[in-house]
Amino acid sequence: MNRKAYYIVMLMIIALMVMGLLIATAELTGLNFGYVVHFLNVIIISACLLIYPKYETHFFRKLIISFGFLYFYTLFFLYPETWTTFIFICFIPALSILFFDMKLFYFSLILNGLLIIAAFGYIIFTDKGGAYAYLHNDIAGNLINIIASQVLIFLIFHLSFRRMKKQQLYYEQLQQTERLKLTGQLTAAVAHEIRNPITVVRGFLQLFKEDSSFGDSAKGKFKLMIDELNTVEQIVSQFLTLSKPNKDQSAEQVDVRDVIQSVTGLLNSYALLSDNQIDIDVEEDCFISINMIEFKQLLMNMIKNALEASDAGKSVVVTAYRSRQHIEIKIIDEGCGMSEAEVKSLGTPFYSLKSNGTGLGLMICYNIVEKYEGKLDYTSSKGHGTTVTIRFPTA
Ligand code: ADP
Ligand code: MG
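Above: the input record for the complex with adenosine-5'-diphosphate. Below: its predicted structure, written as tokens.
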């Protein structure tokens, strides 16, 4: 609730409490204990309500509700001739709905149940209908009404709580999507800026390669450099196409073995950095219909994740087999593994357990696999390793 509305509502409540206090003061014959409690309660609750926005803690809410209990039960016992105080007692738990606090709600519901039983005990055994004739006349009927009122409050709370939670979740997802959109645009801008310098550098290298004043070994190195720059440019283009997903990307017949070999070739030096190894076991003639760059990106992400999860010395195995209708690619590691809950979160944007991770890799992978009607499955056990299974229809 916004601050202004909060203070207006609270001032109204305080005004009502003060009015009640004034009426009680007018009828006062001599100072008694009950009146003092009533008076102090109005002061304390007013103060609590006014400073609550500064301390929005569970403890403070509990304090306010507890004083609320004290206040309404004081009224109930102090002014038995005013039967409407009984209604207030029934609806005290509803106060915690305003605070949107589940624990507080159950606390007040249970406390209210106990206090109502105590109050009825008092009316039946001590008062015997003296002051509370209106309750004593029909004990059973009144009790049923009280229970009904508590059930009603419970239902109201539960339904509104669930709805609020849903709305909150929706709002969070919306924010997430906004963030993703922003990163997408940023990546596109950066990728675009990287492209131009690369083109210039590659141009010069091409010139040098053709220049006869360089020897053969230098020319070989220029060729290598140009190849590397081509890879960079490809990756940058990938980023650009990712941020423009509507752009048509052609699928082609791709030999899975060739692609796996070229991707693992690229990643081998990355693996060696942490003393890991990539083993491949791939059947011949596995063809799928997919965009080559996206397929490379998919494998690259998956194998990189597997390597990053593995301890030094362990190897990652990549296999690909043909079945009747599918090509099944597996990436198996003996790394840190994941719990069931962690596996469930995979593919969520920005979900990453690495200190320098982006949590975007798998999101992109899931998109690619879905686009080509494939399936992506994770089997993992914490501490033992992970197997990723990617299945694509055979071309
Ligand atoms: P990033 O690699 O940037 O963290 P990803 O989307 O590629 O983002 O992966 C998300 C998270 O999934 C990782 O941070 C990691 O915790 C987990 N993960 C992915 N693959 C594996 C794997 N093979 N073994 C263990 N954890 C993995
Ligand atoms: Mg990754």
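Notes for the reader.
The chain has three domains: 3-137, 190-243, 252-393.
Residues 3-137 form one domain.
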